[in-house]
Amino acid sequence: MHGMIAWFARNHVAANLLLVTIIGAGLYSLNNRIPLEVFPDINLDIVSVNVAYRGATPSEAEESISIRVEEAVYDLEGIDKITSRSVEGRSSVNIEIASGYDTRDLMNDIKSRVDAISSFPADAERPVIAIEQHKREVISVVLSGELNEMELRQLGERIRDELIRLPELSQVELDAVRPYEISIEVDERTLQEYGLTLEQVADRVRGSSLDLSAGNIKTLGGEVLVRAKGQAYTQHDFEEVIILTRSDGTLLRMSDIARVQDGFEEEVIFTQYNGRPAVLIEIYRIGNQSAIDVADAVKRYISNAQLSMPEGVELSYWRDRSKIVKARLKTLTNSALQGGILVILLLSLFLRPSLAFWVLIGIPVSFLGSFIVMSMLGVTLNIVSLFAFILVLGIVVDDAIVTGENVYTHLQRSENPLRAAIEGTQEVSIPVTFGVLTTVAAFAPLLMIGGPRGAIFAQIPLIVIPVLMFSLIESKFVLPAHLKNIKPPSSGDNVFAQIQTRISRSLERGIIRYYQPVLDRALAHRYLSLSLICGISAIVLSMVFSGWTHFIFFPKVQSETARASIIMPAGTPFDVTDRHVRHITEMARQLQQQYIDPDTGESVITHILSTTGSVGGGSSGQSNSGRVMFEITPPEHRTLNVTSSQLVNQWRKMIAISPAPKA
Prior knowledge:
Layout: H1 2-10, H2 12-32, E1 43-52, H3 58-73, E2 79-87, E3 90-97, H4 103-115, E4 128-133, E5 137-144, H5 149-164, E6 171-175, E7 180-186, H6 188-194, H7 198-208, E8 211-219, E9 222-229, H8 235-239, E10 242-245, E11 251-253, H9 254-257, E12 258-264, E13 270-273, E14 276-284, H10 291-305, E15 314-318, H11 322-350, H12 353-360, H13 362-377, H14 383-393, H15 398-413, H16 417-443, H17 451-457, H18 461-483, H19 495-524, H20 526-545, E16 561-567, H21 574-594, E17 605-612, E18 625-632, H22 644-657
Antiparallel strand pairs: 1-3, 1-4, 2-3, 5-14, 5-15, 6-14, 7-12, 8-9, 10-11, 13-14, 13-17, 16-18, 17-18
Helix pairs in contact: 1-16, 1-18, 2-13, 2-18, 11-12, 11-14, 12-15, 12-18, 13-18, 14-18, 15-16, 15-18, 16-18, 21-22
């Protein structure tokens, strides 16, 4: 390493080329290859098998679907754990894949086993088998107003289609709505009157409602494709389906014997936003899209689209997750700015301003170098990786400071700046290198944690280690080439130089008077010093293991969203569940009116969203479940002295104390 240090110090062009290459490659990776997301996108080694079984109770779904799927796949090599969840009308089996096995290959084996099951109930739909993936929402659009369900759904579909056409967006889904359904109801007496069965009516629908290819006709002018289009899509189309042709030539149509309804599935989902019916439109980030750009594009669309909404209809956004990323970026930027000022100030007082500048350059260079590695390893900018940048910000310039200070010391002894840069860097190269490697070794075990949680923790060392390594490269090969241009120190007549000299000499006198005697005594009584350190360590460890110092895996932070979920016994009517959801919502409204910020005149609870028929906001409702959520003003914008935990605790007490609705 000593030879490379001397070569780069003498060849400043090579050092500058290395510097420019790191900066250029880092900026390219940051702008083109590293996406900005809210939470790291983690691939789950889970294969899900979902089977819809309409009308089945949870026990029937378990016995007829879940158990048979488990029995069919349990002996496949590579399966770690199987969990199943059976609810009314649906069965879901999650199969976790053991480490070291290819998830997609095992999914094909699982699909073959499940498709071979011949004992599924006749009413069960085909199994849907897929690799489980987490979709990360960025922001939710809420459409609310006093409209009926059909009008609200159609307006929501229009907004969804307009959002998907925005260049910044790629994945948009309509949520908290019921799927469309056209139902045909035929009275039993009517069937007997015309000598028909329900199966015959169903066959007429299947035979008439389809698009049929009739081949092609070859002509001198070319080939003509013949196709009969008869697929029914609307209520009128199904009413015109011909059931019978009488002997007199008259036609018996569907409208003559049945009642056709164009509506929604029977499973009910009812969503309210601030007390008005609503639908949600979820926007996701995919690929290299930036979560902040996606959220900003949605907000711009909402501000423009609100002007064209019908009277009484409100278009707003809910749970903007990009705010978390913005807060982390702001923290990182402020910390870097404050740290840079402190580095410049302190090194300028004790060393030289030019040396402080080149030491400070090591921070952005190290970060840009880590962007190169991030793009190669597929690591994104998210709240975890940004935390890692904040974490390493305080130690990234340590090696550069040590190198720069030692070069400055050699510069005070020698009139040759080149020799001072080379010898000063070489002298501390080994201890600085091992200092960086010990820090790397401390973070490396985080790469060995398995499972989904391990993939999250791995984001930290995948940032810290490259930053430290590029900091080492910059301080050993780039920094000496610039420090050789620093002029030897002289007191001179400059006022700043005189102040700097006094401060530097005061520090040296303090080191000689206080630190050096203590160091000499510690070295002379090394066993006593070692015993003292071991004793202090034992006291600290005893405080941790005795419970005096508490341990929390994840510290509690104030949330900006509160949630209450309700799950009634299976089979509970929708109206009963809805009454309880409305009761919980009313308690949230009372809480909203109680906590008014005196400075703004607005409540710290900004919006309230309630959904009956689902605890997850999905489009397949369950009559026995529901949820209520409310958003809280961020702590930094809240002057009222109340925390999120206090709001939730009081909400919980209000729900318990107030008389619950009777079934």
